[in-house]
Amino acid sequence: MHVERLAKDKVRIFVSYDDLEERGIDRDEIWLNGKKVQELFWDMMETAYAEVGFEIAGPIAVEAFTMPSEGVVIIVTRVPSLPGHGRTADDDDAMDVELSDTMFSSFVFSFPDFEDVVRVSYALYDYDIHTSLYQYNGKYQLFVDEDSVQEDEYDSIWSILHEYGEYSEVTTAVLEEYGKCILRSNAVQHIVMQFPL
Predict the structure, then answer these.
(1) Which chain positions lie within coiled-coil regions (predicted)?
(2) Which of 50, 93, 103, 174 is 20–30 Å from 181 (CA)?
């Protein structure tokens, strides 16, 4: 388990499949929100507090992303309480966190140069995946709909994306709100057709 502080109110936690196996949790079981998963979550929060001083004080948002051969990335964000809706310590003790409700069926990779986007598009062209392209934070962000990825092609697609870009923790909601949408759908196919290598 590895914890990284992303901002004052946000941490990223990487849990390897070996970590899950040691706890007797199957890969698919992590989305079922059983007792073992609840225990894992609170262990993660204890580790986050011990390593980077991140403490839960009120409501939180949890996003979880699967990485095909490495493990699970979990991003925990403290959300400001609405007036009159604050939590007490007793509420925190009783709080249930359901990862299954917060999992996003997508992932995003960022690329500093458009040339990298063109190269990765050619490498991904033969895969029938749904993609969108955004510009955000001075980089190109390629959104991949995870539901469109065939299970036996997952590792190959992930490796190709890693070769040309880097995994981005930005969510599609942020891209829609603050980013500039360049290609809404079939981004890979459009780029290959319009930009010859």
Answers:
(1) none
(2) 103
Q: In terms of Cα–Cα distance, which of 24, 31, 19, 21 is closest to 66?
A: 31
- Residue 32's nearest CA partner among 110, 100, 79 is 100
Are the CB atoms for 64 and 99 separated by under 8 Å? yes
CB contact set of 109 (below 8 Å; sequence gap of 6+):
120, 141, 142, 144, 161, 162, 164, 165, 166, 167, 168
Say yes or no to pLDDT of 102 above 70: no
Give the span between the Cα atoms of 134 and 110, in whole angstroms: 9
CA quadruple 195, 138, 186, 171: dihedral, nearest 10:
160
pLDDT at position 135, please?
A: 95
Spell out the domain ranges in the chain.
2-102, 106-194
